[in-house]
């Protein structure tokens, strides 16, 4: 049975998965390094490496370049890696939880619920969350995502079986309701809040700062650290809830842990970056095709690839219309929507409406 749980449809691909993860780690390192030097600064990859290797970064770069790299680009890169990893891993967990590759935090309304919580704090103020200080926004987004995910699971699951059609329709309804309430809040916002909210809703890493990473990043890191412990349960759940229960998986506690992890990661990500779609559905699906469905490898691989893809999307967003900046959510939608349509065409049989 362990062999069944740890192998994919084409047999055990553990060696391939480990090699892929190593390649993805190298890809992430290269992407982060290139992101440091992409933009208006004159800093080059060679100069940056020379400064780091010699221990004399001050001599290798000008004062202006050091400020740009340390105070603007490095926080943006760290935030991009955290958000990309959080969205991709959350998508993988939701797909495993619902046993369907169409599940995604953005598609089924979780991101919209998180956005509603965050926008409530921005427009109405922190209120009872004021004592939390910088954590008020991510906590509000987490609460919105948690409520959305809990409602989705309650509506879509009946007698231990999850209806994919119900899940998708319920997600559309939840997203529509959250967007309607968000529209009411936006109508109450002043001009300054409207400018911030308009750009924030389309997704952006432009506001990345070290304090923001400290508040939201800590929640994301804790949520990501919990996901490896979900791998065995997700593998067992792929065989059905009855089989998973017989294998010793405490289903209710497991589902609660999975929902809380997803809501935490997505909520904190939405709080600091706004709406960024398609990462959570595209990344796990592509990796599942490459290395198989074993979540012991799929979850960390999703984190690595999600982080890399979001860094690439961010680099495109700040260079393609320079000196202006394109919202990163537009870049991920343009790239991700065709892939999502391809996934739908491949998986038409599982959506029985």
Short description:
The model is unreliable at 1-10 (pLDDT under 50).
Topology:
Layout: H1 2-5, H2 14-37, H3 45-54, H4 57-60, H5 63-98, H6 110-124, H7 136-156, E1 157-158, E2 161-162, H8 164-187, H9 191-201, H10 210-226, H11 231-237, H12 241-246, H13 251-273, H14 279-291, H15 295-317, H16 328-346
Antiparallel strand pairs: 1-2
What does this structure look like?
47% of the residues are buried. Helix content is 73%, strand content 1%. The model is unreliable at 1-10 (pLDDT under 50). It contains 16 helices and two strands. It has helices at residues 2-5, 14-37, 45-54, 57-60, 63-98, 110-124, 136-156, 164-187, 191-201, 210-226, 231-237, 241-246, 251-273, 279-291, 295-317, 328-346; strands at 157-158, 161-162. It has one domain (2-37, 69-345): ABC transporter involved in vitamin B12 uptake, BtuC. By secondary structure, the protein is mostly helical. The longest helix is centred in the N-terminal third of the chain and has 36 residues, at 63-98. It is globular, with a radius of gyration of 20 Å. The protein has a two-stranded antiparallel ribbon with strand order 1-2. β1 (157-158) and β2 (161-162) form a beta hairpin.
């Amino acid at each position: 049975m362990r062999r069944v749980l740890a192998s994919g449809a084409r047999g055990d691909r553990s060696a391939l998965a480990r090699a892929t993860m190593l390649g993805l780690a190298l890809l992430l390192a290269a992407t982060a390094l290139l992101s440091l030097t992409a933009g208006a600064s004159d800093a080059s990859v060679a100069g940056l490496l020379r400064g780091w290797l010699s221990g004399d970064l001050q001599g290798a770069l000008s004062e202006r370049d050091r400020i740009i790299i340390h105070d603007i680009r490095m926080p943006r890169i760290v935030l991009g890696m955290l958000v990309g990893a959080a969205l991709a891993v959350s998508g993988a967990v939701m797909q495993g939880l619902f046993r369907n590759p169409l599940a995604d935090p953005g598609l089924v309304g979780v991101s919209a619920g998180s956005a509603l919580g965050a926008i409530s704090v921005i427009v109405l103020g922190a209120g009872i969350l004021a004592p939390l200080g910088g954590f008020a926004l991510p906590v509000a987004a987490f609460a919105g995502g948690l409520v959305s995910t809990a409602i989705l699971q309650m509506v879509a699951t009946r007698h231990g079986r999850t209806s994919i059609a119900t899940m998708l329709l319920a997600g559309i309804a939840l997203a529509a309701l959250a967007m309607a309430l968000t529209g009411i809040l936006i109508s109450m916002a002043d001009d300054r809040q409207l400018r911030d909210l308009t750009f924030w809703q389309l997704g952006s890493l432009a506001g990345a700062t070290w304090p923001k990473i400290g508040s939201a990043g800590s929640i994301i890191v804790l949520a990501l650290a919990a996901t490896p412990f979900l791998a065995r349960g997700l593998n067992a759940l792929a065989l059905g809830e009855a089989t998973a229960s017989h294998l010793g998986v405490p289903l209710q506690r497991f589902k609660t842990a999975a929902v809380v992890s997803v809501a935490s990661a997505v909520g904190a990500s939405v709080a600091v970056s706004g709406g960024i779609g398609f990462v959570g559905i595209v990344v796990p699906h592509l990796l599942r095709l490459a290395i198989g469905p074993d979540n012991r490898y799929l979850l960390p691989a999703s984190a690595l690839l999600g982080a890399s893809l979001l860094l690439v999307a961010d680099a495109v967003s700040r260079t393609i219309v320079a000196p202006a900046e394109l919202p990163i959510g537009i870049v991920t939608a343009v790239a991700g929507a065709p892939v999502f349509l391809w996934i739908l065409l491949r998986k038409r049989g599982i959506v029985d409406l």
